[in-house]
């Protein structure tokens, strides 16, 4: 593994988490390749998939509106060639009622895994499992 690239890719993941937690959608988008793929696979709410940075930004903007606060914390790293998997602890306070039955102001807590794949210094694919 190229240590320098691994460090750059790790920093990209750290930046993504920082931007996600602070609702900086445009900055999150800057980390993605134009033809990226985002997938969210959840036990409780099914799967979501979007292709391309523009579609990702629309989804990220819409999703951000659901939360008053949100925070992802990385609890473990697995770093490979052009891929990083992280274990995540996630907490959020809902800004609105959601179809799963949770109400505005309630706390959502999840554990999950996110897998990042990189190409030319950008996130090419992100898959979230929760």
Characterization of the model:
By secondary structure, the chain is α+β, with helices and mostly antiparallel strands. The chain has a single domain, classed as Nuclear Transport Factor 2, Chain: A, CATH 3.10.450.50. Helices cover 28% and strands 49% of the residues. The chain contains 3 helices and 6 strands; from the N terminus they run ααββαββββ. It has a 6-stranded mixed sheet. The radius of gyration is 14 Å and the shape is globular. The mean pLDDT is 92.
Compose a concise summary of this entry.
With 130 residues, the protein is of the alpha+beta class. It has three helices and six strands; from the N terminus they run ααββαββββ.
Topology (elements, then pairings):
Elements: H1 3-21, H2 25-30, E1 32-42, E2 46-51, H3 53-64, E3 67-80, E4 83-94, E5 107-119, E6 122-129
Parallel strand pairs: 1-6
Antiparallel strand pairs: 1-2, 3-4, 4-5, 5-6
Provide keyphrases for this structure.
Nuclear Transport Factor 2, Chain: A, 130 residues, 3 helices, alpha+beta
| Percentage of residues in helical conformation | 25-40%
User: Care to count the β-strands?
Assistant: 6
What is the class in the CATH system? Alpha Beta
Query: Count the helices. How many?
Result: 3
Multimerization status: single chain
Largest sheet features: 6 strands, mixed
Computed structural class? alpha+beta
CATH architecture: Roll
Look up the CATH topology.
Nuclear Transport Factor 2, Chain: A
Spatial order of the strands forming the largest sheet: 2-1-6-5-4-3
């Amino acid at each position: 593994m190229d240590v320098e690239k691994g460090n750059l890719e790790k920093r990209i993941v750290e930046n993504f988490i920082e931007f996600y937690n602070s609702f900086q959608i445009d900055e999150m988008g800057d980390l993605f390749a134009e033809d990226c793929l985002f997938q969210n696979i959840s036990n409780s709410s099914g799967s979501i998939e979007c292709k391309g940075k523009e579609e990702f930004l629309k989804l990220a903007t819409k999703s951000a509106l659901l939360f008053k606060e949100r925070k992802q914390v990385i609890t473990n790293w697995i770093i490979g060639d052009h891929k990083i998997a992280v274990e995540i602890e996630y907490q959020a306070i809902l800004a609105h009622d959601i179809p799963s039955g949770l109400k505005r102001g309630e706390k959502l807590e999840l554990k999950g895994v996110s897998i990042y794949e990189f190409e030319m210094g950008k996130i090419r694919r992100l898959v979230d499992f929760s």
